[in-house]
Amino acid sequence: MAHDGVRFTQWYSADSVCTPSRAALLTGRLPVRSGVFGNLRVFTPQLSSGLPKEEVTIAEILQDAGYFTGMVGKWHLGINEFNSTDGNHLPCNHGFDWVGTNIPFTVVTRCDENKRHVEEPSLDCFLYFNNTIIQQPIKMASLTKRLLTDAKRFIRTAVDSDKDFFLYVGLTQTHTDLTVMPELRGSSRRGAYGDNIQEMSYFVGEVMNELEVRGVKSDTLVLFLSDQGPERQLCLEGGSPGPFRGGKTGSWEGGFRVPALAVWPGKIPAGHTSTAVVTSMDILPTLAELAGAALPTDRIMDGKSIVENLLNPSKSSPHQLVYYYCTDRLYAVRYNEYKIHFLTQPELTEAEMVADCPAGVPTARHTLECCKHIDCYHADIVAHEPPLVFNLETDPSETWPLPLEALQSMLRDVDLLVKEHKDGVEPAKPLTSTEYLNEAVFPCCNPPLCKCNYP
Question: In this structure, what are the phi and psi dihedrals at residue 393, rounded to the nearest 5 degrees?
Fold first, then answer.
């Protein structure tokens, strides 16, 4: 994809954990506006809350523009509202015409059917088809092929019906659990994590090939990106942020800056790199512009169209500021080449990682549960007054704080922009909160056993 399209080196997620980052991608809005934040930070199966119906998703905008909309893969934006089967928060209620195999919650180490890290897979690892539970726990070894079969089926149905289409695929890679299809086990020198990358590459390649076989590759824009940075506490099984500091749950670059690629043969120039600062929230207004669809006018949209950045990778960023939120707390902003930290979280130390991961493999129980330092209001959070400032162009690893004497004019500009931003944000009621805990909404396919494997 990088060879055939454009690679973005400064693409940002709107959050450093799964649920709010996905909500922001689909709505084009910061999670603090939609209420997709709270003390738990993510939707769990025991919560009766989910992505609010009032939020307008990419699927709903494109659906109104005549597109056939589909979804497969990880959702993580809510499941049930009143009981264990109502599915009120599932993707079929957010603008998706067709929903195939999907993971309403997530896949993590406790889903490990190979029992490398757990004695038995957890019952909160379950698989749905549309709004019906079909496996509990998930049969991980066959999951990717199930998702691929459905993705291809959706593309084939859309093409055969001569419909414009939008397909949202939430890949499970490289989220732990790292189980892969049998034929790819041991295929990488990078161990279980490398095998997982191989499986992801296989999936993407098969989808791209399907577009070509169906004769629509040149008419289709394909975007590939991550939802947040790697889970470093899992050591060799959690991925690497490369040169960046931090990872999942944190406000350092390693938590928010993600890999991103875009391919559109004949439209996007091949083999280019864009250094424009863009965000996942930009996807909604970009697709709306390309589809000739109207954006909602009754709310603030945080995303900006990056059509020009796609077609001309040398174009500059449409954003004045990039925001690094942890729930409803603004931890940092990016302004041009500067990153300004108002708050920072504790970081994993090398000593912790060595102790928890002998030979790089996580073994300590607490390392297998997400996540250390996830609490945005923890007593160990450090407030910086004056703020910490880094130059991300010369110091992308955020190692060397800049002296502030020569930056006073810039900091005054940032203070005004941040004040303007905060004045325009009315935080919604937090939905990923223990207030919504209700065991009655936990999915159970075969009460009271909660175990099944339906065809």
Answer: -75, -40
Q: In angstroms, what CA-CA distances link 9 with 5, 6, 170, 221?
A: 13, 10, 21, 19
Least confident of 76-80, 318-322, 350-354: 350-354
- Asked whether 169 and 151 are in contact (CB, 8 A), the reply is yes
Element (H, E) at 69: strand 68-74
Cα separation values, 179 from 27, 113, 121, Å: 31, 8, 12
Helices then strands, each counted (H, E), the chain: 10, 15
| pLDDT tens track for 11-70 | 999 999 999 999 999 999 999 999 999 999 999 999 999 999 999 999 999 999 999 999
Cβ–Cβ < 8 Å for 302, 33: yes
> For the residues 108-133, what does the mean pLDDT come to?
90
Q: What does DSSP say about strands 165-170 and 272-274: parallel, antiparallel, or unpaired? A: unpaired
DSSP three-state, residue 277: coil
Rounded CA-CA distance 166/63 in Å is 9
Catalytic, 18? Answer: yes
**Which structure tokens are listed for 82?**
């009143």
Q: Which residues pair with 437 in a beta bridge?
A: 47
| Encoded tokens for 26 | 């689909």
Choose the catalytic residue: 18, 235, 370, 371.
18
The one catalytic residue in 76, 94, 319, 341 is: 76
Amino acid at 156: R
Both structure tokens of 448: 């009271």
Residue 224: both structure tokens together: 């590939």
Which tens digits make up the pLDDT trace of 394-409? 999 999 999 999 999 9
Contacts of 62 (CB under 8 A, 6+ apart): 69, 95, 166, 287, 288, 291, 293
Active site residue 445: no
By residue count, the chain amounts to 455
Structure confidence at residue 369 (pLDDT): 65
- 27, containing H or E segment: helix 18-27
pLDDT confidence of residue 81? 98
Can you tell me whether residue 280 is helix, strand or coil? helix
